[in-house]
Design goal:
Elements (H helix, E strand, L loop, with lengths): L3 H20 L3 H19 L2 H11 L3 H8 L5 H4 L2 H15 L4 H14 L4 H17 L3 H14 L6 H13 L1
Helix pairs in contact: 1-2, 3-4, 4-6, 6-7, 7-8, 8-9, 9-10
Length: 171
């Protein structure tokens, strides 16, 4: 919603006002403004629109998630590198419902920009493996599936990986 530089400037201004409140003897106000400035720092690293889109995806509301993610007009200017990765990751998840060619491009771009959580990276590679399997590229699919299995430390995608391996045997 706000430019990342604007968030930092706003955080510094609120923090400076918190220091002013401390010097005037209003300790409670100063603490409140420090907490408020930390919210802006948090939103610098975690984009609010991406967080709202993830909340919609948790409810399986793809239309709502797409509405939130489409509010980001220029991701290269408005987002940090990791946030751009998650932007393209979310776009890829939504595109995988309708257009797998576009979804493949978006997932590859998300992986190249980087995803901070291993299970998100594993899911992106698992989706890419599924797309490669759909396009009859078995070698690429097996490599991506092995990478996804290695990244899935908590075994959250264990069932999906097994199912995809069984489908690969049929090809």
């Amino acid at each position: 919603m706000f430019n990342k530089i604007f968030k930092l400037i706003l955080s510094v201004l609120v923090f400076a006002y918190a220091i002013y409140q401390f010097t005037e003897g209003f300790i409670g106000n100063g603490i409140m403004f420090i907490l408020l400035s930390s919210v802006f720092i948090l939103l610098y690293y975690k984009n609010e629109l991406i967080l709202l889109a993830f909340m919609r995806l948790r409810k399986q509301d793809f239309k709502g998630a797409e509405k939130w993610i489409d509010k980001i007009k220029n991701p290269e200017a408005a987002l940090t590198t990791k946030q751009q990765g998650y932007y393209y990751y979310l776009k890829g998840l939504m595109a995988s419902q309708t257009n797998i060619t576009q979804a493949e491009k978006l997932f590859k771009k998300a992986i190249s920009l980087g995803l901070s959580m291993k299970h998100d990276l594993a899911l992106a590679k698992l989706n890419l493996a599924g797309i490669a399997m759909t396009k009859r590229r078995k070698r690429e699919a097996t490599e991506l599936l092995a990478e996804a299995k290695k990244l899935d430390k908590q075994n959250m995608l264990k069932d999906q990986i097994k199912m995809m391996q069984q489908q690969m045997k049929k090809i």
